[in-house]
Amino acid sequence: MIEIKQVSKVYRLKNREVIAVDDVSLIIEDGDIYGIIGYSGAGKSTLVRLINQLEIQDSGKIFVDNQNLGDLSSNELRKLRTKIGMIFQHFNLLWSRTVSENIELALEIAGNKDKQERHSKVQELVDLVGLTGRENAYPSELSGGQKQRVGIARALANDPKILLCDEATSALDPDTTKSILDLLLEINKKLNITI
Q1: CB-based contact 65:1 (threshold 8 Å)
Q2: How far is the C-alpha of 13 from the C-alpha of 9, rounded, in Å?
Q3: Per-residue pLDDT of the chain (195 residues; tens, 9 = 90+)
């Protein structure tokens, strides 16, 4: 469960302050899918980044599985982040790596040293996101939807309990957007991941 209690975040610029998140409280139960909507600049991405502490709130508390994220050490926070996958708007793929290598990178960073285990997990994820046969393709050879599927597979590599999506479909056409949303719904049902 994710619990956000009276969280606020202010960006201090040269001449002014921008209130990005203002006294937000909500509870997201395990396995739920939540969408945050609002105008551009309304603080949606900031709120998502607060959940995994890529941004730190100025006030309020955030709990994941009853752990106050503000009480965690750097090491504890790093460990928790392996259970929070993140899908980005602009894919964030490494252009010099293939589909498989981009997915495998998440496993390497998390410290998985077993090459056979990594390869098996990568193939499982490639199949899950519908990229079978494209494992050796480079990002430049993929459509926008395929790139986002690689991003989703990479975010799922360490078996997260939570999948955060920061405008994961905004760079895609309507048909591709629908297919990605359908995939996320399938992942939610199959893996019981909070999205």
Answers
A1: yes
A2: 13
A3: 999 999 999 999 999 999 999 999 999 999 999 999 989 889 999 999 999 999 999 999 999 999 999 999 999 998 888 899 999 877 789 999 999 999 999 999 888 889 999 999 999 999 999 999 999 999 999 998 999 999 999 999 999 999 999 888 887 888 998 999 999 999 999 999 999
Considering just the CA atoms, what is the radius of gyration of the chain in Å?
17
Long-range Cβ contact pairs of 30-34 (< 8 A, separation 24 or more) = 30/1, 30/161, 30/192, 30/194, 31/188, 31/192, 31/193, 31/194, 32/194, 32/195, 33/184, 33/185, 33/188, 33/194, 33/195, 34/195
Torsion sign (Cα): 191, 192, 194, 195: positive
Q: How far apart are CA 72 and CA 76, in angstroms?
A: 5
List the structure tokens of 160: 């997260």
CA distance 84 to 168: 15
- Tokens matching residue 104: 């495998």
Q: Give 10-18 contacts, CB < 8 A, sequence gap 24+.
A: 10/58
Rounded CA-CA distance 188/48 in Å is 18
Q: What's the Cα-to-Cα distance from 105 to each of 4, 82, 115, 154, 182, rounded to whole Å?
A: 31, 13, 11, 8, 25
Look up residue 71 and give its DSSP letter: G
